Description:
The structure is a homodimer.
Chain A: H1 9-30, H2 38-47, H3 53-60, H4 64-76, E1 80-84, E2 92-96, H5 98-122, H6 124-135
Antiparallel strand pairs in A: 1-2
Helix pairs in contact in A: 1-5, 2-4, 3-4, 5-6
The first copy, chain A, binds a DNA duplex through residues 37, 39, 52-54, 62-66, 68-70, 73, 85, 88-92.
Amino acid sequence: xxxxxxxxxxxxxxxxxxxxxxxxxxxxxxxxxxxxxxxxxxxxxxxxxxxxxxxxxxxxxxxxxxxxxxxxxxxxxxxxxxxxxxxxxxxxxxxxxxxxxxxxxxxxxxxxxxxxxxxxxxxxxxxxxxxxxxxxxxxxxxxxxxxxxxxx
Amino acid sequence: xxxxxxxxxxxxxxxxxxxxxxxxxxxxxxxxxxxxxxxxxxxxxxxxxxxxxxxxxxxxxxxxxxxxxxxxxxxxxxxxxxxxxxxxxxxxxxxxxxxxxxxxxxxxxxxxxxxxxxxxxxxxxxxxxxxxxxxxxxxxxxxxxxxxxxxx
DNA sequence: ATATATGGTCAACCACGTTGACCGGAAGGT
DNA sequence: ACCTTCCGGTCAACGTGGTTGACCATATAT
Lengths: 152, 152
């Protein structure tokens, strides 16, 4: 049994997430990718090989308007292109650029390195148990995230 | 070893946190405490038995202005009082009301119940290992949280 | 007594989300 | 072909939780 009160769990989860995200954003900044926010990473993951704003909103569990705003910011960062759909001229297909894919690759590298450090502190069995636990953790109502969190 | 890619860790942490928070907010809503946001819970925890806005900002790792806004919203919810300091007439002491303390108590109950359910799904050893892991997780730069996460 | 440090507030701004209204292209029914 | 309905996208206004800068008023140190 652990000495930590269960009621501290949410705070610890939050803190660990922010700690990982901060480390990755520092690394991206250093590697020539400044101004990347948490939202951008999630959205790029959700876009995958390409989709529309409406689909992006559905995948992230947010409104299509919010998804469109995020897409616009991704475009300004040079991470995606927005091209007219060939069959349906209403839609704009969001597709990752090489720079966008590279950002994702660097993020994944940084995340893995950070978790690797964490493993040396906590032990492999403990981190593996953590991953197992998180898979059956309570799910939020919004943010369905029905997209694969890929290895990139 | 776990079958989950380490790169999914941040997403899983985030999702677990939101899942717990959602459950607690639903419970609070049901118990007659509507409109409680994540910020309010963190701030109430940070206030503890009482402190000033500046101190609250320091504890949460945010600016004093942001802390003052949160305090104002807590006052409107009836969770704290803001009284002039007896020795220093500049300061306003933020102190939890009985309703504020009751909200914290209900939150703690709901969090414990939710983690208890989680324990039955994942197993005690796995959750204990998770708590151990989270204690040595990467720390965010901001949000120092040098206040005790109390059992209430 | 004056200078400096500190608690609090106001105002403007940013990031990220919401809802409501609307335009225009696609699709279906008659 | 035409009209209606559906749906992708955009615009505008707003809410929340942060930021920084300027400022006032009170404490405090010299």
